[in-house]
Amino acid sequence: MNHAVGNPKRRPTMGDVARAAAVSPMTVSYTYSQPERVSAETAAKVRAAAARLGYPGPHPAARSLRRGRAGTLGVVLGERLTYAFEDPQAARFLAGVSDVCAAEGVGLTLVPTTGAATDPRRVAEAAVDGYVVWTTSDDDPVLDAVADTGLPAVIHAGPHGRGLPVVGIDDRAAAVAIGRVAFARARRPLVLGFPLDRDRVRELLTGDDVPEVRFPVTRHRWQGFRDAWTEAGHPAGQLRLAVCPVNHITAGEAFAGQVLTGGDPPDAIAAMSDELALGALRAATAAGRRVPEDLAVTGWDDSDAAAPAGLTTLAQSLRDQGAHCARVALGLTGPAPDHPRWHVVVRDTTRPTG
After folding, report:
1. Could you give the CA distance from residue 75 to residue 150 in angstroms, rounded to a whole number?
2. The sheet that has 189-193: what strands, in order across it?
3. For the chain, how many structural domains are there in total?
4. Residue 32's pLDDT is what?
5. With contact defined as beta carbons under 8 Å apart, do 312 and 348 qualify?
6. Range of 51's domain?
7. 170: which DSSP letter?
8. Are 51 and 80 in a shared domain?
9. CA-angle at 223, arms to 82 and 275, nearest 5°
10. pLDDT in tens, 19-64
11. What's the farthest any 2 CA atoms get from each other in the chain?
């Protein structure tokens, strides 16, 4: 039985119809686009197979691309719609996508997902010419839905696979670099991190007891922080990971406040974002901890709020990465770009490394 039959999670593709009708994908394409090139018998067989599978015909955006006409570029958020406006990093990334869309005369469609079973179908049926996918988990079914459309697509920051190109920095190498600064002279370090998987469970883990991490960004940054700690001769079990369910300053403040007032408070916090780090700074103030004397804190992204807070952080240009993703999805640049640049910005919230 064809794997598309009875599966409401994705839109049947031209390839599914070709297999069901025992013809080539090109024959299916001709049946819809150039019917004079297909015999009446073959066309009837193709359309019967399409009817059984619930295939409505070629994606309108795919036809527009073949005709060379630009329409709309879809951005799959993997988050609620308000995330695009509330999260500073997402806003910067989308600004870069928008820059390219405006320059090319292409519309921009935001396609949020909620984790519901209908997500893949909604994404696959979006009337767009191509997709930019905001970083998501290894097992997100939306990735298969995007790949199955056959439309141009690119993923920001991973995961890799499904034949789709990825644009993003080397998160593991960057985490090693910022981790060395965060953990200088530390004895009880903590990583304030993103969710491990789509369940988004809030939990406090030790470095030798972290389960499988399905979000590539979380996984690679955690690996890099752990590398920075262990390369200095410390056991992995001394490094803790506080998993925040969302990337928001209040989540960072709440979890940092909990560990700072607990029985084994950290003397260094390496956060996976500036939002979480700024929350940790709030918690440090509330707990009466001096920064950096009692507690070193680092962030990630060098957001607009980082410099006024004196926050040591990892700088990258998400706006540039958003623009690069848009160019790849629109076929304006190659599918395998080099890693974008990043650098550590040392300010007032960390101790000297020498």
Report:
1. 16
2. 203-206, 240-243, 189-193, 268-271, 296-298
3. 3
4. 78
5. yes
6. 14-58
7. -
8. no
9. 30
10. 999 998 888 888 877 788 889 999 999 999 998 998 877 665 455 5
11. 81
54 shares its domain with 29? yes
CA distances from 229 to 16, 138, 292 (A): 49, 26, 18
pLDDT in tens, 215-270: 999 999 999 999 999 999 999 999 999 999 999 999 999 999 999 999 999 999 99
Residue type, 354: G
Q: Positive or negative, the Cα torsion across 83, 88, 93, 95?
A: positive
Is 175 in the same domain as 309? yes
The two tokens of residue 141 are 């079914």
Q: Is residue 125 located within the same domain as residue 156?
A: yes
Same domain, 289 and 199: yes
The answer on 145 and 108 residing in a single domain is yes
Q: Which amino acid is at 22?
A: A
- Other CB atoms within a 10 A radius of the CB of residue 125 amount to 15
Same domain (yes/no): 161, 185: no
Last residue of a domain, one of 127, 144, 167: 167
CATH of the domain at 260: 3.40.50.2300
pLDDT digits (tens, 9 = 90+) for 193-212: 999 999 999 999 999 899 99
